[in-house]
Design goal:
The protein has about 160 residues and is mainly α. Helix content is about 80%, strand content about 0%.
Length: about 160
């Protein structure tokens, strides 16, 4: 086996492991997100799209806080620094995630909630799951390449 193959295999294994860790954190985030969202639906059932958007926003914020904690301490622990740059990029990705999530929930809810044949909890959760799936891939890319990107080594003393 060549050195290149060993390096490539190690890199793929490391990336796959990190992605699997990210997926586990994502499952925890999904649980937090759905529990908070459903608590709001149970406390204040509504067909109003603005209220569903508000419920969704609060649920996503709770999931984002959970995401930062676990991704910083576990998934990307070897790269996390806690720097202002890192926090800034995390807040930026969280904002993009939140907007995308809300837009999808509002868009899907308009079709499902107004269909009287689909129960409120089912339509709200269907919209929520679609939004979570769509935003999770984008979230991973943001976190891997911007928020917790690997530290660059400065070998060789300078630019040539």
């Amino acid at each position: 086996m060549t050195l290149e193959r060993v390096v490539l295999r190690h890199g793929l294994t490391k990336s796959l492991k990190r992605y699997m860790m990210f997926l586990l954190v994502g499952l925890m985030n999904a649980a937090v997100d759905l529990i908070v969202f459903n608590l709001f639906l149970l406390i204040g059932p509504t067909h109003a799209v603005w209220a569903l958007s508000l419920y969704n926003t609060m649920a996503v914020v709770a999931a984002i806080a959970n995401s930062y904690y676990w991704n910083k301490r576990w998934t990307f622990a070897s790269q996390a620094t806690g720097s202002m740059r890192e926090r800034g990029w995390f807040i930026a990705q969280a904002g993009v995630n939140l907007v995308l999530n809300d837009l999808i929930v509002v868009w899907v809810s308009r079709y499902l909630v107004f269909s009287k044949s689909v129960p409120l909890l089912a339509s709200g959760n269907a919209a929520k799951v679609i939004a979570m799936i769509a935003s999770s891939g984008l979230s991973y890319l943001f976190m891997h390449y911007l928020v917790f990107r690997p530290k660059r080594s400065h070998k060789g003393g300078g630019r040539s």
